[in-house]
Amino acid sequence: MTYETAKKLKDAGYSQEDPRMTPVSLTNENVHEFIMKAKGDCYIPNLSELIEACGDVFYDLQQKPIKEGWEATAFLSFATHAEGKGDTPEEAVANLWLALNDKKE
Description:
Elements: H1 3-11, H2 31-39, H3 47-54, E1 58-63, E2 70-75, E3 81-86, H4 89-100
Antiparallel strand pairs: 1-2, 2-3
């Protein structure tokens, strides 16, 4: 997950409690994640936490054709749905959570 998405989650009210401070292994892919957690800047939820946070309306997560990334879908009613897209499953579900929790005034 990108820092920008993690910050959006934080700013939108996603729970920042109980962050995991140490990844299993530090690689080039997760070093940025480790630094963010160590700084306490933004909590980076894992995929299962994001799906759970979307609640009972979460419906589907699928990989789109090559270079189109991932798409997560939630059904709000028979005719209404929300979706989130991203380069990774975590980004797509994070963007879905943001769409579901959009506080338009």
